[in-house]
Amino acid sequence: MTADRVETGDQPGGPPPRARGSVMRDVARLAGVSHQTVSRVLNDHPNVRPETRDRVLAAMRALNYRRNSAARTLVTRKSRTLGLIAYETTLFGPASTLYGLEQAARSAGYFVSVASVRSLDRESVLDAVDRLCEQSVEGIVAIAPQSSVGTALAQVPTGLAVVGVGGGGEHVPTVCIDNATGAAMATRHLLALGHTTVQHIAGPPDWPEARDRIDGWREALHSAGAPVPAPRPGNWSARAGYEQGRLLAADPTVTAVFCGNDQIALGALRALHEAGRRVPDEVSVVGFDDVPESGYFLPPLTTVRQDFAELGRRSLDLLIEQLESGIRTDRRVSLTPRFVPRASSGAAPT
Amino acid sequence: MTADRVETGDQPGGPPPRARGSVMRDVARLAGVSHQTVSRVLNDHPNVRPETRDRVLAAMRALNYRRNSAARTLVTRKSRTLGLIAYETTLFGPASTLYGLEQAARSAGYFVSVASVRSLDRESVLDAVDRLCEQSVEGIVAIAPQSSVGTALAQVPTGLAVVGVGGGGEHVPTVCIDNATGAAMATRHLLALGHTTVQHIAGPPDWPEARDRIDGWREALHSAGAPVPAPRPGNWSARAGYEQGRLLAADPTVTAVFCGNDQIALGALRALHEAGRRVPDEVSVVGFDDVPESGYFLPPLTTVRQDFAELGRRSLDLLIEQLESGIRTDRRVSLTPRFVPRASSGAAPT
DNA sequence: CCTGTCATGGTTACCGTTCACACGCGTGGC
DNA sequence: GCCACGCGTGTGAACGGTAACCATGACAGG
């Protein structure tokens, strides 16, 4: 009955949309085999005669069969779906990571289901985890690298693989950029240009990334014997960079500023410009991230590049590693960022 | 057997992670009812005595039961999952739309599964559709507003709701920003400032958004009786803005530039700056999008704001409307953008 | 007292896969 | 000639829900 719904018309006017609702039995009937054989073909089992396989494949094509993943999930208890907890995905970094992850997941044969959270309190995160669990995801990647998330994630049902992206969790496998090293690169670059010290406008204090960058900056200053000013508190926005930048611009001893990210740097750049302090002649500015626009700031921004897409790919690797081994590691993968010199940093004024 | 896996320990050291694997039967057994009654409670059916309902709820809590959505999907043939075809999600616009959509979907009780595509050729889009179909999504939202996508989407299986976001498709319900109006706003603003005409650095020609903005710009010039120069071809990047900006900067008659988006404007700003043409004194620049950083460009960018999150929400509305009515509309929802004047535009030089 | 209706809850079939197992058949070793 | 074995294939039972249908008891109306 259902089988004759074939009619994948080659008639003009465009083929009709593929028919919903052909199932294994239909394919089996058309190919003259049992549903089990169809299943075998589908799952690349050995012990199917090539000729039979071809017949089945032809039938599948004719009926435009696609397998019902719900049924499959039900019996195998594997959904081939990954959950993604996303925070602030409108930012370039998280958005890119999401992209990298999805691409990687796709080629590994996984689907990705997202749950964005509006805030990172325990409540929201646990709620997101719940939603994902209900879809019986096999693993969860959290692009939400706040410390609080780490602890929330540790609570996730056993048998569920978890990976954090970014500075995050204590007891959760994590993949992150080596923020401290990146920050140190930027700082050393500025010191090498003759600046006696480097100011830092930091990201939000509850982001481990921000803290690690502070650490790297501080350490670089310290080991060069340079004075260590207090880091300026901020968040990831241009506005924060602007506000802190105004304060820094008013201080004539300031000649070098390392910013927690490129947006902050943009704000700082504007503040310096408004205060009449030329960049890089009077003040050098370095950012972090290397967003696509930073090469077009005024002046083009010296920064530290993170490979966000790679971050996504690696987090998938880590997840799959757990899925396959069945054990929850607490490995930490760290990616080294790359320093990108441009025009916003220069020799210290004499 | 399974029921005594309760032990959702209140013991110190943190409760053990919720137990996987309690199913309806377990709950039913514990509550002393049949699994059907549990189902009724779960689905808010009437005709369950309050006392029974409470017993069931208590049992569910005790066992930390969560229903298996695969089983549910299998029998109801409704997955409560939406598919999202995403393109260039690292850009601010698409990323924000994704966010808006996900939030809306969540509160409407839907899950969101994403399929990002690397390119928008028919092949890739159809492949993404396939992947989503396999997950038996109930509807698809395509944040991938190229013309080609529209036609590909029209091919989607019947019985599957589809919505395009952005300029896109012919025969597909669409929600978009009124790009022509936005472009006209920007253009009229510049004309009102006394500029004799307005140049336009456009987005990629295969994006309907870009075309609509060209149309709006052209129409505004035309109806004001201003000369209509050829639009400069570009893409959405700062680089394109920079390259076209250099050409424009070399032409002393150019006093006003309307850019296809804020990134382009950023590039143009830099090109003008390098050429020594002051903004806004000598040349006015207007962007489109109002990305969070544009208020911190040098100078702060006059632009046109799109409410991307609203775009996401509306596309969900449209999808749900189709899902509930069961008919595929080809309604087109158009959102009016908002003009945001800042410092990059000013009176024409005399 | 019989019947109809309503509230409540149980029975059972079914959704579309996969898995465990059985089956028939050719082949090779003894 | 018998048995074991591998190959290719079919059969039936899960998986965990929901929906349609049935059973029971209480209660009202005739």
TrEMBL record, chains A, B:
Residue ranges for the region (Disordered) are: 1-22
Top-rank taxon of the source lineage equals: Bacteria
Q: In this protein, which residues make up the domain named HTH lacI-type?
A: 24-76
InterPro entries per UniProt = HTH_LacI, LacI/GalR-like_sensor, Lambda_DNA-bd_dom_sf, Peripla_BP_I
User: By its UniProt entry, which SMART domains does this protein fall under?
Assistant: HTH_LACI
Q: Which UniProt keywords apply?
A: DNA-binding, Transcription, Transcription regulation
Please indicate if the UniProt record lists ATP-binding as a keyword: no
Pfam families assigned: LacI (PF00356), Peripla_BP_3 (PF13377)
The protein's name = LacI family transcriptional regulator
